[in-house]
Amino acid sequence: MRSMRPGIPEYKAEAWFLNYVYAEGGCRHVSYTCICGSGHNSSILHYGHAGAPNNKVIQDGDMCLFDMGGNYCGYAADITCSFPANGKFTEDQKLIYNAVLKARDAVIAAAKPGVAWTDMHLLANKVMLTSLKKGGLLVGDVEDMIKAGLNEVFQPHGLGHLLGLDVHDVGGYLPGHPERSEDAGVRKLRTARTLLAGMVLTVEPGCYFVDCLLDAALADPIQSKFLMPEQLQRFRGFGGVRIEDDVLITETGVENMTDVPRT
């Protein structure tokens, strides 16, 4: 974050990270291909692969979404930071960032043994949609938005996943545990299990402006009644914001193992 500025390519940020986690943390390897999306690229969930190799030049006014994690002694980290390339949030960037941060905070406060991960996903969605409503992008009842599947329009991925020797660790769907839901939003979850002490997961709410999803929602007679098209228009090309922490479920709640700036 301190080194970032407009005019540099995304891959340079990736190179800085690769150097840092090895030189300072002793991590020879990373846990997955680094995602260094800026501007529109920050709305591409797994941007950065061989077909889109972090090669855009970062522009003034871009939001950066950097999803990267070192691998230490075989164990994976998976952390995402979102911030403005020029170091100063616009009002629109602040609105979306704070919506996602409030969703993250709500999950951190509520997660504990005995709580269903699906409920945590829906909690994050409700908090985020409430913020978007207060910001003038949505209208109507938030519970009705969830029923209509609007949560999946703005967050087309699950809240998080198990983390361990693999970045998307095993154990998400097991015999005798909840099956994958068919409901919008929660059907994207990599696990629907009830939380247990000792579990390590990511908490990664996000808010994205994906043209094809927005267009489909605007054309949908049910979803469109919640949308404010004129206000949403200025977010075309915005990209997205994701905040991702790695947490341990304790006997009483959550230990957040992620030490990065969140503002």
Written description of the protein model:
- With 263 residues, the protein is an alpha+beta fold.
- It folds into 2 domains: 1-87, Creatinase/methionine aminopeptidase superfamily (Creatine Amidinohydrolase, Alpha-Beta Complex), CATH 3.90.230; 89-262, Creatine Amidinohydrolase, CATH 3.90.230.
- It is built from 7 helices and 11 strands.
- Strands 1-4-5 form a 3-stranded antiparallel sheet.
- Helix 2 packs antiparallel against helix 3.
- The longest helix has 20 residues, at 91-110.
- It starts with 9 loop residues before the first helix and ends in a 7-residue tail after the last strand.
- The relative contact order is 0.16.
- The mean pLDDT is 97.
| Sheet with the most strands: spatial strand order | 1-4-5
Bulk shape: globular
Report the CATH C-level class of the largest domain. Alpha Beta
Helix content: 25-40%
Order of helices and strands: HEEEEEEHHHHEEHHEEE
Mean pLDDT, rounded to whole units? 97
Secondary-structure map:
Elements: H1 10-23, E1 29-30, E2 35-38, E3 63-68, E4 70-72, E5 75-76, E6 79-84, H2 91-110, H3 117-134, H4 142-147, H5 150-154, E7 200-203, E8 206-208, H6 211-219, H7 229-233, E9 240-242, E10 245-249, E11 254-256
Helix pairs in contact: 2-3
Organism: Pseudoatta argentina
GO biological process, one term: proteolysis
InterPro entries: Creatinase/aminopeptidase-like (IPR036005), Pept_M24 (IPR000994), Peptidase_M24B_aminopep-P_CS (IPR001131), X-Pro_dipept-like (IPR052433)
